[in-house]
């Protein structure tokens, strides 16, 4: 999980920000002890955005598992919801009863990257701030592809219509998802 989270962090912070932050962190704490929050604070200092890296990353490091993002078409919007990913229905039934509590209620800050069937060259990012999000799309968009280049540590499930459209488009052009 740690390597996947660092990969995701590098994608949303940008690689140079990650490297500069790691260099400062290692230099600052080379002869002393550090806490996880010290690492997140160094990254926050190096971002040009108003990202509170600690707030985002606490949802990834202080609860087990990772999210399943489900995408459902609702007219001219895509509703993106998140739940904790569990492998099977049996594990869901037994896990719900025995699942330890999480102060984040098994919700994460998810950098949801996507492109649409209409504009596959335009990659967008929306933040799921421990909540559901709605993505406005043109009426002629048949599907969206989420988690571009698998840069996020989450799984994606599409509604049946989007799956059908994705399959049809892949059959006619198997390279549509290539970076």
From TrEMBL:
Annotated ranges, domain Peptidase M1 membrane alanine aminopeptidase: 1-60
GO BP of this protein: peptide catabolic process; proteolysis
Species of the source: Photinus pyralis (Common eastern firefly)
Protein name, per record: Peptidase M1 membrane alanine aminopeptidase domain-containing protein
Gene3D superfamilies tied to this protein: 2.60.40.1910, Neutral Protease Domain 2 (1.10.390.10)
PANTHER family per UniProt: AMINOPEPTIDASE, PROTEASE M1 ZINC METALLOPROTEASE
SUPFAM superfamilies assigned to the protein according to its UniProt record, in alphabetical order: Metalloproteases ('zincins'), catalytic domain
InterPro entries for the chain: Peptidase_M1_aminopeptidases, Peptidase_M1_dom, Peptidase_M4/M1_CTD_sf
GO molecular function, one term: peptide binding
């Amino acid at each position: 999980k740690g390597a996947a989270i660092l990969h995701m962090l590098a994608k949303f912070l940008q690689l140079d920000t990650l490297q500069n932050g790691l260099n400062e962190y290692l230099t600052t704490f080379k002869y002393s002890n550090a806490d996880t929050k010290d690492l997140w604070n160094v990254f926050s200092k190096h971002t040009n955005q108003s990202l509170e890296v600690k707030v985002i990353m606490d949802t990834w490091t202080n609860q087990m598992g990772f999210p399943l993002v489900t995408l459902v078409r609702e007219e001219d919007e895509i509703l993106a919801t998140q739940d904790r990913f569990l492998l099977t229905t049996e594990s869901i039934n037994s896990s719900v009863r025995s699942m330890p509590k999480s102060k984040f209620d098994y919700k994460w800050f998810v950098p949801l990257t996507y492109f649409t069937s209409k504009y596959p060259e335009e990659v967008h990012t929306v933040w799921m701030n421990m909540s559901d999000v709605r993505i406005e799309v043109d009426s002629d968009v048949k599907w969206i592809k989420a988690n571009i280049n698998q840069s996020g540590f989450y799984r994606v499930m599409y509604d049946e219509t989007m799956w059908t459209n994705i399959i049809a488009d892949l059959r006619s052009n198997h390279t549509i998802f290539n970076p």
